[in-house]
Write a structure and sequence with these properties.
- The protein is α/β, with parallel strands linked by helices.
- The chain has a single domain, classed as Rossmann fold (3-Layer(aba) Sandwich), CATH 3.40.50.
- It has eight helices and eight strands.
């Protein structure tokens, strides 16, 4: 069992460690850009449709913290969960380097079993993480459970072009890009069945779904390019 003292030691970040991590992130972003995926443009595209976000905000899938760092420039606080402490460590380093005005609370949790009561969060976001989830429907059920009536849900993931670029990069590196199949079309229908309406946006190698709850007469979908 890890003691609180050991946990604090693990969370400590030196300036040099943050600098080294930033250098690696810049190099990785350059690889993406050469292959046709501009991280900064994609994050900006998602943010342009996700904002405004208010109240208690949860991010599912911290990853390396690219979206989290950008989001913290617009909101005061974000709770962010990931199942992998090592990957979330990179996000901590990224936030430490960029020093955005907002504050993040980092937590290790399984998105299929979120540690929050029913209807306790105002906004839930997830960016480029759902394709890693073994049971997307279970994750969406949890998101719906913890989001307050009248809240906001933003789900973004690579579109077909984005996935093709990621697959190409991983193949060049002799790795496999983990990608479990699901369709945004199915998510739209699922939200509608639970009386949420959705808006879909497409661009910058991303699909973005923004959902809000509607009266009991039924949900619907608005498609926008």
């Amino acid at each position: 069992m890890i003691t609180k003292k050991a946990q604090k030691e693990m969370m400590r970040i030196s300036r040099q460690e943050a600098l080294d991590n930033h250098s690696r992130l810049v190099e990785r972003n350059a690889v993406f850009r050469r292959c046709g995926y501009d991280v900064d443009q994609s994050v900006a595209f998602i943010l342009s449709h996700a904002l405004p976000l208010s109240g208690k905000i949860l991010e599912i899938g911290t990853g390396k913290g690219r979206f989290l760092t950008a989001l913290l420039a617009h909101v005061p606080r974000v709770m962010t969960v990931d199942i992998d402490p090592a990957v979330q460590r990179y996000a901590r380093l990224n936030v430490a380097f960029e020093k955005p005005p907002g504050r993040a609370r980092f937590m290790i949790a399984n998105a299929e079993d979120l540690p929050w009561p029913d209807h306790s969060l105002d906004s839930v976001v997830s960016v480029n993480a759902l394709h890693h989830m073994k049971n997307v429907q279970r994750v969406v059920d949890e998101i719906l459970r913890v989001t307050k009536p009248g809240g906001k849900i933003v789900l973004a993931d690579f579109n077909s072009r984005g996935f093709a670029i990621m697959d190409k990069i991983h193949l060049q590196e002799k790795r496999i890009h983990e990608c479990l199949p699901y369709r945004f079309k199915d998510l739209v229908e699922y939200f509608a069945a639970h009386d949420w309406t959705t808006v879909l946006r497409f661009g910058n190698c991303q699909d973005v779904l923004v959902a809000a709850q509607v009266p009991a007469c039924g949900g619907g979908m608005i498609r926008k390019g």
